[in-house]
Amino acid sequence: MRFQTYLTTGDVKRLVSDKNLAKNLVQLAKLRLDKLLTADLDKENAFEIVERCYNVLKELTDALLAVKGYKSYSHEAPIEFLREFYTKDLSRVSIEKIDKYRVLRNDIFYRGRTATRQDAELALKDVQAVSTQLLELLKKEGVA
């Protein structure tokens, strides 16, 4: 689905650029990431680690949306936003990783899927790499 479709359906609203919101989202994402990297990981909390990794990536993507004057009420729209507007700056692999964790988080949250320790370890590795790329984009926008 194209990003424009989310605007048409109301899943994304067009607003004015909000760099303060973007800065706040970046701050929260950085705090969450720091906590994630120091969290104890075991098979009982692997699902929480995966969810929290996705939340970091979602907040950073929402910060990019805020800078550009959008507010998303969907988990899919921000990924489509990245696909349409940031493919030169962010690899397709990175965008697909964000989408992968969106799907995994939804499976955990809505379908009771469990996550393994390996899922969580990979999510931690991926969130570090992808968040670094997103933070570079946000730095170019003057909010990171």
Describe this protein's structure.
With 144 residues, the protein is mainly α. It is 71% helix and 4% strand. The protein has six helices and two strands, in the order H-E-H-H-E-H-H-H. The protein has a two-stranded antiparallel sheet with strand order 1-2. Helix 2 packs antiparallel against helix 3 and helix 3 packs across helix 4. The chain starts with a helix and ends with a helix.
Short structural description:
The chain is mainly α. It has 6 helices and 2 strands; from the N terminus they run αβααβααα. It has one domain: Four Helix Bundle (Hemerythrin (Met), subunit A) (Up-down Bundle), CATH 1.20.120.330.
The helix fraction, in percent, is over 70%
Name the structural class.
Answer: mainly alpha
Q: Overall pLDDT, averaged?
A: 96
Strand content: under 5%
Rg over alpha carbons: 15 Å
SSE string, helices as H and strands as E = HEHHEHHH
Spans of at least 5 consecutive residues with low confidence? none
Named CATH architecture: Up-down Bundle
In what order do the strands lie side by side in the largest sheet? Answer: 1-2
> CA-to-CA gap between the ends?
29 Å
